[in-house]
Amino acid sequence: MNINFFSSGNNPFGHLDAVTSTIRPSSFVGQWSTLELQPDLFAPQCFSVGVIVQAPQQRLHYHLLSDFKKFECIYSKQFPKKALVEMFTHAEEVLRQAAQARIALEKVDFGSPNLRLSAPAHTSGETSDSIIERIYRDVVVLEPGLSTRVRQFDSLDTPSVRDLVNQALKSIAGSDFERIVLDAKKGVLIPDGIRTHYLDVNLKTSGACGSVISAVYKTTSTVEMNLLRANLDLTTFSKLQRIKNKGVFLMLPERTQLAPAEWERIENVVGEQSWKLEKDGFRVVSLDSADGLAKEIYDWARPTL
């Protein structure tokens, strides 16, 4: 068959141009592993009880099982719940330290024969959290059945939360809105010789600076990372601008959207990091509604307009 019959000029595939489309590369590309638990070293049973993902050179993110009802069905009184809680507490502490130190996934060591990671496998997707939740639902079969509302929990990233808060703030602040909110997508660019540094700050008046950030996640590592970044960026920006009034406004998930153990984990991380921010001179507000946060932001910013 003569290929010229299908060609368009010098390009033999030109006839396909009208039906082709550009495929956008994945925002997150990295590896994933499961956390494997062998409760009884004298028995061969091993269970997948968590999912960990990591992009190259970045900190890891994880989601661990937080309810042990199905373990109780399997082991009855043969294996005490207290021992399970201690194992999971230890596992989470190791993962938290590994995340902070940006330890590579394959080098995480739990120091216990009961806990180990599976061989890392490739993964990609929009965000680390969406990947974790997708894989977790597929592989962690010991997760108890939750209510429909909990199963349909949707995380919100910081840009999405800022959009919600900005809509509410426009109604409350009126013309003052433009004097408080910076372009959330641009942030603040600080020139430094031949380099320019980006600081994720979206609230600024003549005497105050702040950030709206999201804690609407199930994964505590993402919440912790958002709070740490807010601390670093606002501290740097306030020093450069000689501003003392710093604020962090945190959107929480609704309590009823999470299982009790998951909510307690988020609450503990937020409480710990908020205490540190307050000791560093920040005003910290944590609420589960955009309207509530918008009102707090306007009350905080208005005296410095």
Description:
The chain has helices spanning 69-75, 81-101, 128-139, 148-151, 158-173, 220-241, 260-279, 290-301, and strands spanning 28-37, 47-54, 61-64, 115-117, 121-125, 188-192, 195-199, 203-204, 208-214, 245-251, 282-287. Strands 1, 2, 3, 4 and 5 form a five-stranded antiparallel β-sheet that branches. It has a four-stranded mixed β-sheet with strand order 8-9-10-11, with helices on both faces. Strands 6-7 form a two-stranded antiparallel ribbon. The longest helix has 22 residues, at 220-241. The chain has two domains: 28-145, no CATH class; 158-304, Rossmann fold (3-Layer(aba) Sandwich), CATH 3.40.50. It is globular and about 65 Å long. With 305 residues, it is α+β, with helices and mostly antiparallel strands.
